[in-house]
Amino acid sequence: MNHEQEQFLSFILERVKDDKVEEAKVLLVENFKKLTEGNFTQDDILQCVPQMLALLKPEKLGEVQTVVMQFAENFSALLSDNKLG
Questions:
Q1: Helix (H, G, I), strand (E, B), or coil: what is residue 66?
Q2: Is pTM beyond 0.85 here?
Q3: Of 16, 21, 3, 4, which Cα lies nearest the Cα of 61?
């Protein structure tokens, strides 16, 4: 996991429900692994986001959605540049 992924992981884990931290960590680490291996797709994003949103503290949803949208935009840029997918 690279530094940016570790920062994102920490950011998210601080905002998930206390009893859902381990579940969120597993979900993110699996997706980071796919990303690192070059196997992360837009379908993965579409599956991961709803799962992750369900794990978040309700008062943190807006904050996290903003960051996730920035991540999704960066991912889309990588796809359009043929760097991924």
A1: helix
A2: no
A3: 16
Instruction: Using alpha carbons, select from 41, 37, 30 the residue that is nearest to residue 72.
Output: 41
Q: 13: exposed, middle or buried (C-beta count within 10 Å: 0-12, 13-18, 19+)?
A: middle
Sign of CA dihedral 63, 64, 67, 70: negative
Domain spans in the chain, listed from the N-terminal domain onward: 3-80
Mean pLDDT in each 10-residue stretch from start to end of the chain (85 residues)? 88 96 96 89 86 94 84 64 48
CA dist., res. 36 & res. 30, Å (int):
10
**Distance spanning both ends of the chain, measured CA to CA:** 19
